[in-house]
Amino acid sequence: MKKGKWGLIIFGLVIFIVGVTFPVWYGAGTSAPAPVLDMDTPVIKSMPNKKCVEDTAFIRAHHMKLLDAWRDEAVRDGHREYTAKDGRRFEKSLTGTCLQCHSNKSAFCDRCHNYVGAKPSCFSCHIVPEEVKK
Ligand code: HEC
Ligand code: HEC
Ligand code: HEC
Questions:
Q1: What atom of ligand 2 comes closest to residue 43's alpha carbon?
Q2: Residues 58-86 as b or e (16 or more Cβ within 10 Å = b)
Q3: With CB atoms counted within 10 Å of each terminal CB, which end of the chain scores lower, N or C?
Q4: pLDDT in tens, 40-91
C-alpha cells in the first residue's frame, strides 16, 4: 500500500471516532446545571408533612394537565373543590392554591421552566402574589 492510502485510512478512522463519541463530549462543560428548586417558603416551612397536592413524582410529571383540568372544571363546570388521592381538599386555583405554598414563583416554577424551556402564558392574566420574604 502507498503511504497516502494509510493517511486516508487514519483520517477516516479519526472522523469515525469523533463522530461516534460526539454525543459524549459535545456539551461537556457547556450544559446548564440542573436548577436548584427553592422549597423554603413560609407555608411549606410550617407544614408538618411537606406534601404537594399529589405525590411529588405525579405533580412533577403532570402538574400541567392537573392545572388544565382544574381550569376547565372550575370555569366551565363551577366545580372549584379538588379532593386529592389522600383525601385532602384544595381549591382549584393557580394563584389561590399553588402559589400560596409555592409563594416563590421565580425561585421555584420559573427556575424549572427556564431550565426546560417552558413558557407558561398563564401569568399575563393570573396574579402572582408578592413573594414573601423569608
Ligand atoms: C387570557 C387570560 C387568561 C390566561 C392566559 C389564563 N387564564 Fe386561567 N383564568 C382566566 C380567567 C378569567 C379565569 C376565571 C377566574 C374565576 O372564575 O375565578 C381563569 C381561571 C383559571 C383557573 C381556576 C380558578 C383560579 O383561581 O385559578 C385555573 C386553575 C386556571 N385559570 C389556570 C390557568 C393556567 C394553568 C393557565 C396557563 C396555562 C391560564 N389559566 C391562563 C384567565 C386566563
Ligand atoms: C399545601 C402546599 C402545596 C400546594 C398547595 C402545592 N404544592 Fe407543590 N409542593 C409542595 C411541597 C411541600 C413539595 C415538595 C414535596 C417533596 O419534596 O416531596 C412540592 C413539590 C412540587 C413539585 C415538584 C418539585 C420537584 O422536586 O420536582 C412541583 C412541580 C409542584 N410542587 C408544583 C405545584 C403546583 C403546580 C401546584 C398547584 C396545582 C402545587 N405544587 C401546589 C407543596 C405544595
Ligand atoms: C421540576 C420542574 C418544574 C417545576 C418545579 C414546575 N414546573 Fe411547570 N412545567 C415543567 C415542565 C417540564 C413542563 C412542560 C413543558 C412542555 O411540555 O413543554 C411544565 C409546564 C407547565 C405548564 C403548562 C405550560 C403550557 O404552556 O401549557 C404550567 C401551567 C406549569 N408548568 C405551571 C407550573 C407552576 C405554577 C409551577 C410552580 C408552582 C410549576 N409549573 C413548577 C416543569 C416544572
A1: 2
A2: eeeeebeebbeebeeebeeeeeeebeeee
A3: N
A4: 999 999 999 999 999 999 999 999 999 999 999 999 999 999 999 999 999 9
